[in-house]
Protein backbone atom coordinates (compact mmCIF):
# COMPACT_ATOMS: atom_id res chain seq x y z
CA UNK A 1 0.00 0.00 0.00
CA UNK A 2 1.40 3.42 -0.95
CA UNK A 3 1.52 5.96 1.86
CA UNK A 4 0.45 9.60 1.51
CA UNK A 5 4.07 10.61 2.04
CA UNK A 6 5.25 8.47 -0.89
CA UNK A 7 2.46 9.73 -3.16
CA UNK A 8 3.30 13.37 -2.56
CA UNK A 9 7.08 12.95 -2.58
CA UNK A 10 7.24 12.49 -6.34
CA UNK A 11 5.10 15.48 -7.31
CA UNK A 12 6.52 18.55 -8.97
CA UNK A 13 7.05 21.81 -7.13
CA UNK A 14 8.89 20.36 -4.13
CA UNK A 15 11.60 22.83 -3.02
CA UNK A 16 15.11 21.66 -3.87
CA UNK A 17 16.26 21.57 -0.24
CA UNK A 18 13.25 19.49 0.75
CA UNK A 19 13.73 17.10 -2.15
CA UNK A 20 17.42 16.70 -1.35
CA UNK A 21 16.51 15.92 2.26
CA UNK A 22 14.04 13.25 1.11
CA UNK A 23 16.62 11.67 -1.17
CA UNK A 24 19.34 11.68 1.45
CA UNK A 25 17.06 10.16 4.09
CA UNK A 26 16.11 7.43 1.63
CA UNK A 27 19.76 6.84 0.77
CA UNK A 28 20.72 6.40 4.42
CA UNK A 29 17.99 3.78 4.80
CA UNK A 30 18.88 1.97 1.57
CA UNK A 31 22.64 1.92 2.18
CA UNK A 32 22.12 1.01 5.83
CA UNK A 33 19.93 -1.96 4.97
CA UNK A 34 21.69 -3.26 1.86
CA UNK A 35 25.19 -1.85 2.09
CA UNK A 36 26.97 0.05 -0.64
CA UNK A 37 27.39 -3.16 -2.61
CA UNK A 38 23.72 -4.13 -2.57
CA UNK A 39 22.04 -0.73 -2.79
CA UNK A 40 20.93 0.78 -6.09
CA UNK A 41 20.10 4.28 -7.25
CA UNK A 42 16.81 2.97 -8.61
CA UNK A 43 15.82 1.69 -5.17
CA UNK A 44 16.66 5.02 -3.53
CA UNK A 45 14.62 6.89 -6.13
CA UNK A 46 11.72 4.48 -5.66
CA UNK A 47 11.71 5.06 -1.91
CA UNK A 48 11.01 8.75 -2.55
CA UNK A 49 8.77 8.29 -5.57
CA UNK A 50 10.98 10.06 -8.11
CA UNK A 51 12.81 8.95 -11.22
CA UNK A 52 16.38 7.69 -11.22
CA UNK A 53 17.49 10.49 -13.58
CA UNK A 54 16.24 13.05 -11.05
CA UNK A 55 18.30 11.40 -8.33
CA UNK A 56 21.36 11.64 -10.58
CA UNK A 57 20.61 15.31 -11.14
CA UNK A 58 20.91 15.89 -7.41
CA UNK A 59 23.87 13.69 -6.53
CA UNK A 60 25.59 12.76 -9.78
CA UNK A 61 26.64 9.21 -8.89
CA UNK A 62 26.15 6.38 -6.44
CA UNK A 63 29.52 7.20 -4.87
CA UNK A 64 28.55 10.83 -4.32
CA UNK A 65 25.23 9.79 -2.79
CA UNK A 66 26.92 7.34 -0.46
CA UNK A 67 29.50 9.96 0.53
CA UNK A 68 26.69 12.37 1.43
CA UNK A 69 24.87 9.69 3.44
CA UNK A 70 28.10 8.79 5.24
CA UNK A 71 28.80 12.42 6.14
CA UNK A 72 25.31 12.79 7.56
CA UNK A 73 25.48 9.66 9.70
CA UNK A 74 29.04 10.17 10.91
CA UNK A 75 28.43 13.84 11.67
CA UNK A 76 25.30 13.12 13.69
CA UNK A 77 26.94 10.35 15.69
CA UNK A 78 30.12 12.32 16.36
CA UNK A 79 28.18 15.35 17.60
CA UNK A 80 26.06 13.14 19.85
CA UNK A 81 29.10 11.39 21.30
CA UNK A 82 30.96 14.64 21.93
CA UNK A 83 27.91 15.92 23.76
CA UNK A 84 27.65 12.80 25.91
CA UNK A 85 31.32 12.61 26.90
CA UNK A 86 31.98 14.88 29.86
CA UNK A 87 35.70 15.47 30.49
CA UNK A 88 36.76 14.06 33.84
CA UNK A 89 33.59 12.00 34.31
CA UNK A 90 34.61 8.40 34.96
CA UNK A 91 31.53 6.86 36.53
CA UNK A 92 29.32 4.28 34.84
CA UNK A 93 27.01 7.15 34.03
CA UNK A 94 29.31 8.11 31.16
CA UNK A 95 28.94 4.93 29.09
CA UNK A 96 25.22 5.01 29.77
CA UNK A 97 25.07 8.59 28.49
CA UNK A 98 27.00 7.54 25.40
CA UNK A 99 24.63 4.65 24.73
CA UNK A 100 21.65 6.94 25.20
CA UNK A 101 23.15 9.42 22.74
CA UNK A 102 23.71 6.70 20.15
CA UNK A 103 20.21 5.31 20.47
CA UNK A 104 18.70 8.78 20.37
CA UNK A 105 20.62 9.66 17.22
CA UNK A 106 19.60 6.44 15.49
CA UNK A 107 15.95 6.55 16.53
CA UNK A 108 13.87 6.32 13.37
CA UNK A 109 16.91 5.36 11.26
CA UNK A 110 18.53 2.45 13.07
CA UNK A 111 20.14 0.98 9.97
CA UNK A 112 22.12 4.22 9.61
CA UNK A 113 24.72 2.64 11.91
CA UNK A 114 25.70 0.31 9.06
CA UNK A 115 26.30 3.19 6.67
CA UNK A 116 29.30 4.03 8.83
CA UNK A 117 30.27 0.39 9.43
CA UNK A 118 29.61 -0.92 5.92
CA UNK A 119 31.44 -4.15 5.11
CA UNK A 120 30.56 -3.99 1.42
CA UNK A 121 32.58 -0.87 0.61
CA UNK A 122 35.38 -1.22 -1.96
CA UNK A 123 38.68 -2.20 -0.33
CA UNK A 124 40.36 0.94 -1.64
CA UNK A 125 39.34 4.37 -2.82
CA UNK A 126 37.78 7.58 -1.57
CA UNK A 127 34.72 6.00 0.04
CA UNK A 128 36.78 3.51 2.04
CA UNK A 129 39.13 6.28 3.13
CA UNK A 130 36.25 8.52 4.20
CA UNK A 131 34.57 5.73 6.17
CA UNK A 132 37.83 4.78 7.88
CA UNK A 133 38.50 8.40 8.76
CA UNK A 134 35.11 8.73 10.46
CA UNK A 135 35.48 5.38 12.19
CA UNK A 136 38.91 6.40 13.46
CA UNK A 137 37.46 9.60 14.91
CA UNK A 138 34.79 7.66 16.80
CA UNK A 139 37.35 5.04 17.85
CA UNK A 140 39.50 7.88 19.17
CA UNK A 141 36.68 9.04 21.42
CA UNK A 142 36.18 5.47 22.66
CA UNK A 143 39.92 5.04 23.27
CA UNK A 144 40.20 8.28 25.22
CA UNK A 145 37.16 7.41 27.31
CA UNK A 146 38.49 3.91 28.03
CA UNK A 147 41.90 5.21 29.11
CA UNK A 148 40.35 7.85 31.36
CA UNK A 149 37.94 5.34 32.90
CA UNK A 150 40.76 2.91 33.76
CA UNK A 151 43.19 5.59 34.91
CA UNK A 152 40.64 6.74 37.49
CA UNK A 153 40.83 3.21 38.89
CA UNK A 154 44.61 3.10 38.97
CA UNK A 155 44.98 1.05 35.79
CA UNK A 156 47.49 2.52 33.37
CA UNK A 157 48.34 -0.41 31.11
CA UNK A 158 47.77 0.78 27.51
CA UNK A 159 46.91 -2.75 26.41
CA UNK A 160 44.16 -2.88 29.03
CA UNK A 161 42.85 0.38 27.65
CA UNK A 162 42.99 -0.89 24.07
CA UNK A 163 41.23 -4.12 25.04
CA UNK A 164 38.49 -2.18 26.84
CA UNK A 165 38.04 0.05 23.80
CA UNK A 166 37.54 -2.99 21.56
CA UNK A 167 35.18 -4.56 24.09
CA UNK A 168 33.17 -1.35 24.21
CA UNK A 169 32.91 -0.78 20.45
CA UNK A 170 31.99 -4.41 19.84
CA UNK A 171 29.33 -4.22 22.54
CA UNK A 172 27.81 -1.07 21.07
CA UNK A 173 27.60 -2.60 17.59
CA UNK A 174 26.02 -5.75 19.03
CA UNK A 175 23.46 -3.73 20.96
CA UNK A 176 22.52 -1.69 17.88
CA UNK A 177 22.09 -4.91 15.90
CA UNK A 178 19.91 -6.38 18.67
CA UNK A 179 17.86 -3.18 18.69
CA UNK A 180 17.29 -3.39 14.93
CA UNK A 181 15.85 -6.88 15.43
CA UNK A 182 13.51 -5.56 18.15
CA UNK A 183 11.73 -2.66 16.44
CA UNK A 184 9.25 -2.29 19.29
CA UNK A 185 11.99 -0.96 21.57
CA UNK A 186 12.26 2.83 21.64
CA UNK A 187 15.56 4.63 22.13
CA UNK A 188 14.56 5.48 25.70
CA UNK A 189 13.57 1.89 26.44
CA UNK A 190 16.84 0.66 24.99
CA UNK A 191 18.85 3.06 27.13
CA UNK A 192 16.94 1.94 30.22
CA UNK A 193 17.52 -1.70 29.36
CA UNK A 194 21.27 -1.06 29.11
CA UNK A 195 21.20 0.72 32.47
CA UNK A 196 19.62 -2.34 34.08
CA UNK A 197 22.06 -4.72 32.42
CA UNK A 198 25.14 -2.74 33.38
CA UNK A 199 23.86 -2.35 36.95
CA UNK A 200 23.31 -6.11 37.14
CA UNK A 201 26.79 -6.90 35.78
CA UNK A 202 28.67 -4.63 38.19
CA UNK A 203 26.49 -5.40 41.22
Tags for this model:
10 helices
Q: How many DSSP H or I helices?
A: 10
What general outline do the C-alpha atoms trace?
elongated
Give the percentage of residues in beta strands. Answer: under 5%
Determine Rg (CA atoms, Å).
Answer: 19 Å
Largest sheet: none
Number of strands: 0
Low-confidence stretches: 1-10
Description:
The protein is about 75% helix and about 0% strand. It is elongated. It is mostly helical.
Summarize the structure.
By secondary structure, the protein is mainly α.
Helix-strand blueprint:
Layout (H helix, E strand, L loop, with lengths): L3 H6 L6 H23 L2 H8 L3 H8 L2 H23 L8 H14 L6 H4 L9 H26 L6 H23 L6 H16 L1
Helix pairs in contact: 2-3, 2-5, 3-4, 5-6, 5-8, 6-10, 8-9
Amino acid sequence: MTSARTRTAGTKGVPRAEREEQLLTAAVEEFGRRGYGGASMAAVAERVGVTKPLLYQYFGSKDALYAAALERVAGSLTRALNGALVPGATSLGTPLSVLGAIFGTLEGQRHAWFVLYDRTLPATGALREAAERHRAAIDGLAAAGSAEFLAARGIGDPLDSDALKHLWTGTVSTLVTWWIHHPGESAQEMAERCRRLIAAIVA
